[in-house]
Amino acid sequence: MRIHTIALLALGFCGISSSAFAALLIQVDKSAQTVTVVRDGETLAVWPVSTGNSEHPTPSGSFTAFRMEADHYSREWDDAPMPHSIFTKQGHAIHGSFEVKRLGSPASHGCVRLAPENAAKLFALVTEEGLPNTKVVLTGSEQVALARIHAQRSAQQTARGARGSQARQGSAGSPPDFSAAGPPSQSASRQFYDQPRYVQPPPYVYGPTEYNAYGYAEPYPRAQYAPGYYRRGYYYPN
């Protein structure tokens, strides 16, 4: 009789313990901004999420999923689309969001946002296991995630500023290197200026017969370029 009673108690305890533990566990870490999906102790997926921002934090705790809607729109936030929503008794939901660029940082009004394709996968898992066997556990803090993101952005800005400073110092502090070809020679410069230039030459050149019988200078018209070179619009005779 005693052995029979112990056996009945053991069976009853096993039944209670099996119903107390959910087959599907959805763990949301607000500090890391991730969700981990566990079924029967096996981790199925880890996805980035967006929980509530500092003005609308997502409550922490352990909740049971009680309602699902594949095509839901928010009545509180301008009919915002919430595909594949899984609601808890606290009124918040885990749902898909098209603002995928903000995943990994607190950005919602209290719900837990997922990428649309990941929300569809989670919705299918909950449908397969059933709402009574699905538990949602939320831990951590959005403030920890915001502080981490702020530190990462500050470090990135510091690194960009350091790279820009090094680039400016490198471009301004490096003198021209004449070790290979050397500076341009004077003959090369003179050869450049000896080329015919598109400048107006002097209209007259004074020669040996530059004085007439009265002792006054009498210039004669120039017929061709005089020996010399032009530099910056000025004529230099040889």
Describe the structure.
The chain has 238 residues and is α+β, with helices and mostly antiparallel strands. Helices cover 31% and strands 27% of the residues. The protein is built from four helices and twelve strands; from the N terminus they run αβββββββαβααββββ. The radius of gyration is 43 Å and the shape is elongated. The N terminus is likely disordered.
What secondary-structure arrangement, pairings included, does this model have?
Blueprint (H helix, E strand, L loop, with lengths): L1 H19 L3 E6 L4 E6 L2 E7 L12 E13 L7 E8 L4 E4 L15 E3 L1 H14 L4 E6 L2 H32 L12 H9 L9 E2 L14 E2 L6 E4 L2 E4 L1
Parallel strand pairs: 1-8, 6-7
Antiparallel strand pairs: 1-2, 2-3, 4-5, 4-8, 5-6, 9-10, 11-12
The CATH topology name of the largest domain reads L,D-transpeptidase catalytic domain-like
Number of domains: 2
Give me the strand/helix succession: HEEEEEEEHEHHEEEE
Number of strands: 12
Give a brief description.
By secondary structure, the chain is an alpha+beta fold. It contains four helices and twelve strands; from the N terminus they run αβββββββαβααββββ. It has helices at residues 2-20, 116-129, 142-173, 186-194, and strands at 24-29, 34-39, 42-48, 61-73, 81-88, 93-96, 112-114, 134-139, 204-205, 220-221, 228-231, 234-237.
